[in-house]
Specification:
This protein is an alpha+beta fold. The protein is 46% helix and 23% strand. The longest helix is centred in the middle third of the chain and has 19 residues.
């Protein structure tokens, strides 16, 4: 039987989920955050950055911001896992505090890491967040976890895009007007290349088709509106979905929790 429990900080870009999935299949999506998880039981399989991966009990998952990935149980018994989502600005803040100087954002080359220390730190932080631990204890565990993740698993800094190419121009067009009904010809014109070249280049650069990325932007907008307590039907309309059921279907497929469950976690 599938279940999930969600938590969201009211003051910092930090969220956490504890879940067990047997039938649920994650649609390919990404987060604006760093996402660090630990598999507690079973095997979860997913594709990330073009390769197939499996995380077994005790293994750690490390996704960079905007890392496209899917996910499902590797067998009929399902899997249980804990995951923490941390905004890049929060990670940068913690690293600057540790080093007593400005810090660049880390990059995790491997989405699956076998490290008992990291697994233990993540379980401790996650339990403190969902268990209502005092703020001071949560902050201490956050610092220890981020520091350990970077020291033991990160490889280098995230790259930044300098001169925008066709694919990046198309992405910016979608970022700026994700509610618009943009056709392939219009997007290719904004990018300055053919429709085919844009589709192929976009999938290679961002791991999903432009239409999937546009839907992802609408889901992120829905999360922001739900976080402030808006009615789900209003959120669906404001974020560009046909109706509440349309939003709910895609929200669950990408995030493993219903819009109502997410809103409750944000306003609890």
């Amino acid at each position: 039987m599938d279940w999930s429990r969600y938590w969201r900080s009211s003051s910092r870009p930090m969220e956490a989920m504890h879940a067990h999935f047997e039938r649920h299949v994650y649609h390919r999506h990404s987060h604006e955050t760093y996402s660090f998880g630990v598999t507690e039981d079973g095997y979860q399989a997913f594709r990330c950055r073009g390769d197939a991966h499996t995380s077994a009990a005790g293994m750690v998952i490390a996704f960079n911001p905007d890392d496209p990935h899917d996910g499902h149980a590797a067998d009929e018994l399902g899997f249980t896992y804990r995951i923490v989502h941390l905004g890049p600005e929060l990670v940068s803040e913690v690293l600057a505090d540790i080093g007593d100087r400005p810090a660049g954002l880390p990059l995790f080359d491997s989405p699956v890491v076998t490290d008992p220390v990291l697994a233990r730190n993540l379980r401790g932080l996650h339990a403190a967040l969902l268990g209502g631990a005092p703020a001071l204890r949560r902050d201490e565990l956050l610092t220890a976890t981020v520091g350990a993740m970077v020291n033991r698993a990160a490889t280098r800094r995230l790259r930044t895009v300098s001169a925008p190419g066709p694919v990046e121009r198309a992405r910016r067009r979608l970022d700026e007007a994700y509610l618009d009904d943009i056709g392939a010809d219009e997007l290719a014109e904004a990018a300055g290349c053919s429709r085919f070249a844009l589709y192929r280049g976009f999938r290679r650069a961002y791991g999903m088709a432009p239409s999937d990325y546009q839907r992802l932007l609408r889901l992120r907008a829905a999360r922001r509106l739900l976080a402030r307590g808006d009615a789900i039907g209003d959120v669906a309309a404001a974020a560009g979905f046909a109706d509440q059921s349309h939003l709910t279907r895609w929200f669950v497929r990408c995030y493993g929790v219903t819009p109502g469950g997410y809103r409750e976690a944000c306003t609890d």
